[in-house]
From TrEMBL:
<dbReference type="GO" id="GO:0020037">
    <property type="term" value="F:heme binding"/>
</dbReference>
<feature type="region of interest" description="Disordered">
    <location>
        <begin position="25"/>
        <end position="51"/>
    </location>
</feature>
<dbReference type="Pfam" id="PF13442">
    <property type="entry name" value="Cytochrome_CBB3"/>
</dbReference>
<dbReference type="InterPro" id="IPR009056">
    <property type="entry name" value="Cyt_c-like_dom"/>
</dbReference>
<protein>
    <recommendedName>
        <fullName>Cytochrome c domain-containing protein</fullName>
    </recommendedName>
</protein>
<feature type="compositionally biased region" description="Low complexity">
    <location>
        <begin position="31"/>
        <end position="41"/>
    </location>
</feature>
<keyword id="KW-0479">Metal-binding</keyword>
<dbReference type="InterPro" id="IPR036909">
    <property type="entry name" value="Cyt_c-like_dom_sf"/>
</dbReference>
<keyword id="KW-0813">Transport</keyword>
<feature type="domain" description="Cytochrome c">
    <location>
        <begin position="112"/>
        <end position="192"/>
    </location>
</feature>
<dbReference type="InterPro" id="IPR002323">
    <property type="entry name" value="Cyt_CIE"/>
</dbReference>
<dbReference type="GO" id="GO:0005506">
    <property type="term" value="F:iron ion binding"/>
</dbReference>
<feature type="coiled-coil region">
    <location>
        <begin position="56"/>
        <end position="101"/>
    </location>
</feature>
<keyword id="KW-0349">Heme</keyword>
<keyword id="KW-0249">Electron transport</keyword>
<keyword id="KW-0175">Coiled coil</keyword>
<keyword id="KW-0408">Iron</keyword>
Amino acid sequence: MASKTPFLCVSAVTALLLVGCGDDKQTASTPAAPEQKAAQPAPEPEAAKPMVEQVKEEVTNAVDAAADTAEQMTDKAEQMAEEIKEQAADTMEKAEQKATDMVASVSEQVTPTAASGESTYKSLCFSCHDTGLAGAPKLGDKAAWEPRLANGIEAIYNTAINGRGAMPAKGGNPGLSDADVKATVDYMISTVN
C-alpha cells in the first residue's frame, strides 16, 4: 500500500491546488460590478435662482422684442393702407374726369349743334335750298319760311326726316340721324331771323 499513498497525496494536493486555482480563476475572470456613477446632487434652490432669473429675463426680452416688431409691422401696414387709399382715390378721380371728358366728347358728337347743322347743310342741302329748286325754301328767305314755321317746328322736322313732295327723306342721305336732320333744320331757321 505504501506505493499508493504518495500518489493519493500528490493527487490530493494537486486537486486542492486546482480547486484553489479554479477559485482564483473564477474570481479573477468574474467581471467586477460596474462602478456606479455618483449622482449629481440637485442644485440648491438658492443656487438655481440666478439661473431662473436669467431665463425669465431672456424670455421677457424676447416677448418685448416680438411686441415691438409686431407694433412696427402694424404701423407699416397702416401706412401702406393709407397710401393705397390715397392712390385709389387719385385713380378714381382721374377715371371720373376721363369718363366725364369722354361723355362730353360723345355728347358733342351726338348732340346736334348749329355748327353740325351748318356742315350738313353745306355738304348736302345747299343744292336745293340755295337756289330754291323744286320750291325748296331758300336759306335766309323769311317769306318762304313763314308758312312752314306757322305749322310748328315739329312739322318741319317731320318733313325733313320723312320727306314730302320733291323733298327726299333726310335730304336724300339715309345715313343721317334724325338728330343730324333736326340740327340742319335748326341751322336753316336760324338764318331767317
